[in-house]
């Protein structure tokens, strides 16, 4: 315990001495960065082209997706399992490359 207090006191005195030495040199503020090259002094102004809407279209009315996702038709658990197994087989064989589960399930669950 006594050794750690002695070490801490010595470290504190060393920091105080270094701080006083730096203040005596007048280095209280860091140096300024070098000036910028003339080529970088001015940046080109970029004016992005805003997309134009056809006349009569209100820009504040957006065509957002519905709040609720599309619902699948009601089906029994067995039918859902059958369609799921069929979909997995189609994906494994590559036959479902151009289809989505939602479009497939809408047709399969109605059967």
How would you describe the overall organization of this protein?
The chain has 111 residues and is mainly α. The protein has helices at 2-25, 77-93, 101-108. It has a domain at 72-91 and 100-110.
Please name the defining characteristics of this protein.
single chain; 111 residues; mainly alpha; 3 helices
Task: Describe, in short, the structure shown.
The chain has 111 residues and is mainly alpha-helical. The chain has helices at residues 2-25, 77-93, 101-108.
Number of DSSP E strands: 0
Overall pLDDT score: 78
Rg of Cα set: 36 Å
Classify the beta-strand content into a percent band. Answer: under 5%
Tell me the structural class.
mainly alpha
Query: How many separate helices?
Result: 3
Main beta sheet: none
| Helix/strand order, N-terminal first | HHH
Name the helicity range.
40-55%
How far apart are the first and last residues' alpha carbons, in Å? Answer: 83 Å
| Low-confidence blocks of residues | none
Describe the secondary-structure layout:
Layout: H1 2-25, H2 77-93, H3 101-108
């Amino acid at each position: 315990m006594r050794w750690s207090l002695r070490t801490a006191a010595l470290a504190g005195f060393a920091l105080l001495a270094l701080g006083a030495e730096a203040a005596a040199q007048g280095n209280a503020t860091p140096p300024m960065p070098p000036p910028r090259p003339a080529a970088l002094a001015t940046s080109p102004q970029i004016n992005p082209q805003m997309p134009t809407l056809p006349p009569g279209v209100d820009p504040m009315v957006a065509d957002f997706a519905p709040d609720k996702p599309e619902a699948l038709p009601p089906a029994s658990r067995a039918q859902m399992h059958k369609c799921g197994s069929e979909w997995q087989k189609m994906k494994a064989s590559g036959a479902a490359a151009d289809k989505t589960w939602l479009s497939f399930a809408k047709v399969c669950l109605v059967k």
